[in-house]
Amino acid sequence: MYEGLLMFGVVFIAGYLFGTLSQTRNALDNRHALQAFLFVIFGIYFVWFWAKGQTLAMKTWNIRVVDRHGAPITQPRALLRYVLSWLWFLPPLAVSWALGLPGREAAVLALGWVPIWAILARFHPDRQFWHDAIAGTRLVTSLPAGKAPKAA
Asked: RDD domain spans which residues (predicted)?
């Protein structure tokens, strides 16, 4: 949820930049080009931060993305993770497109798929999301420097 708030700012600035540079006057003009542009901008955002270990939201929640061995991930691996993370949304979007579903029905389909995809993580031996398993990454708890866990 917190990542979504941060991404709102990224989308706002990127959308404003795209609209200004393309001289788009109507929100529906250049819609597909804007979507492709945002896909690239999201990719830059996530690949950049994941290659450094964590996004701003992940830093707040003390979560870090690492490879299978606990080492920081490379930019190519972060890019692979980004592309594979679209498995959260790609199947319902493809079905919606193939069936020609209107926006509301596509949204319902997507909202139904996301919990199913999340539940599928329970079937992974390490209980991690499948895009992480395929990309060779995992999320770990990462305490800030100088902070030791409290003894019980």
From this structure: 5-136
Kindly list the distances between the CA atom of residue 144 and the CA atoms of 54, 59, 147, 152, in Å, as whole numbers in the listed order.
12, 9, 6, 19
CA distances from 52 to 36, 65, 73, 148, 150 (A): 24, 9, 8, 22, 27
* Among 114, 136, 115, residue whose Cα is nearest residue 126: 136
**Residue of 94, 96, 95 whose CA lies nearest to 104:** 96
Q: What are phi and psi of 72, to 5 degrees?
A: -60, 150
The 8 Å CB, 24+ separation contacts for 33-38 are 38/11, 38/14
**CA quadruple 87, 90, 92, 94: dihedral sign:** negative
Q: Kindly report the CA angle at 118 between 60 and 87, in degrees rounded to 5?
A: 95
Distance of CA 127 to the CA centre of its chain: 18
pLDDT digit string (tens) for 88-146?
A: 888 888 888 899 888 889 889 888 888 888 898 888 888 888 889 999 999 999 876 66
Calpha distance 14→9 (Å, rounded): 8
- Among residues 51, 48, 24, the alpha carbon closest in space to that of 35 is found at 24
